[in-house]
Amino acid sequence: MRLLRPTFPFAALVLASTMAFALAGHFAAEAVIRRQQAHQLDELTEVVLRRSEFAVDFAAASLDELARRKLVSCEPGALQAIRLHVYQRSAIKDVRLVKPDGSVICSAYSETLEFDKGWVDRRDMLPSRDKALSLFRVEQFGGAALGVLRDIDGSSALVAIVGINASLFDIMPAELRARSDVILALGNGEKLGKFQSDAGKSLLELISFERNSVRFPLHATIQLERAVLASWNNEAYWPTVAVALGLGAIFGILLARSRRMEEPVADLDRALAAGEFKPYYQPIFDLRTGQIKGCEILARWLRRDGSVVPPMNFIPLAESSGRIQAMTWHLLGSALAELKPLLKTDKNFKLSLNVVPNHLLSAGFVETLRRTVLAARVSARQIVVEITERDELDDLARAAAVVAELRDHGFRVAIDDVGVGHSGLSRLKGLGADTIKIDKFFVDTITVDASTTAIVEMLVALAKDLNMTVVAEGIETEEQLRALIASGVEEGQGYLVAPPLPSARFNELVVSRRVTRSGAAVSGDTVLVA
């Protein structure tokens, strides 16, 4: 019996510790899951807002095009040209010429006036950050539409009537779809569109996620029942609790906490000094022919032990710690050295480099880029500076000046992550870039979501109006390729052709593609993307 006595307090301590860890794990799992749910729903609300902003940008660009062509008239010839312009843009239902007070003078499709249940006075239209652009709700028998007014001169303005398709807001996950509403409204509360999978249902004990556009008087809301969150995305609960039960785990966390901030940054510095960050290259190809027309430099961390650290595990830290600039210059120098023979042989080959906004706006950026490229004896027109949108460009005027300076020296400029980043299309126009890159988010859903197809077509039309080229990112299937071609996209990148590759394998791929194309040219066949 004496031998058993020490065992009892030990067992009691283990039991108490296990219960404490289990309780801590429970609360930690609940907190993580709720925070992740809120983050995902905030992102979905942002998607609704971005899609709505795209529609307004599309309408504004269309009106600007009409104004540039001087089609601001009720003459029969002008109205015929406007009707053709509207016909080519399915998202726009009508274009009307109005007086400064907002009253209609004439309409491209006069019969659409019969569907109006009323017309808003200019005083009730809502201004945008662009003072010459106003938004208002158009009441029609078939439902609400969005009016986008662009002032042309002191005597007239143009209005685009934009159809609000509720399917554009069909973005909710399957588990939440039946117990949620997605609502788009103007800044004054007037609803423009609402998606409900079951229009007759009523929701109980609602929780809402809301976003306001900073550029337009638009307000997006996602409402859902609080109870439905209990079973959504809770897969992490039991793994988290299991980890919490591990003996000694809590002590390891406490010991590591003090080093959590300094050790990873020190690791980055050591890796930079040791040259462990290597450029990998993902081909950018012609969607129809499969010809490789360039590549994007992507960072990989190759540790001395042979392990590879994925970008998501070090790029955010490199950006927040300021190491991203040194890393960027190191990657560019290595890439120019590795691909110099290819760049010399093919003067049309383009090498794309990712640059975060604060690096773009840093002192001496353009001069350092010029010196680096000149030292490699590579033409500036073969270098594409991709401005990433993880951080917002706070000073648009300064950024536009830097972009203009880059283009004056022969460099090309692309805007990355279009559609999910910070920039609206009006800001893209203000930057004066050459290329927009459609984010993988849209490519993933283009074959299953009609609203995505409409957005991609809208982006292509806007890029054409702005004399920009379009590149689609993340192409993985032939179905996506065909859908992008049908939407007017000409270039892309993704695992369908190749993942990011080290220089030797990338050069082999380029050579094999050229051999394949040469053989096809001799036989008269067409080369398709494999």
From TrEMBL:
It comes from the Bacteria. The keyword Cell membrane applies. Its EC number is 3.1.4.52. It is a multi-pass membrane protein. Keywords: c-di-GMP, Cell membrane, Hydrolase, Membrane, Signal, Transmembrane, Transmembrane helix. It is found in: Cell membrane. Residues 261-514 form the EAL domain. Pfam families: CSS-motif, EAL. SMART domains: EAL. Residues 1-24 form the signal peptide. It catalyses: 3',3'-c-di-GMP + H2O = 5'-phosphoguanylyl(3'->5')guanosine + H(+). Its main location: membrane. Gene3D superfamilies: EAL domain. InterPro entries: CSS-motif_dom, Cyclic-di-GMP_PDE-like, EAL_dom, EAL_sf. This is cyclic-guanylate-specific phosphodiesterase. It comes from Bradyrhizobium vignae. The lineage of its organism: Bacteria, Pseudomonadati, Pseudomonadota, Alphaproteobacteria, Hyphomicrobiales.
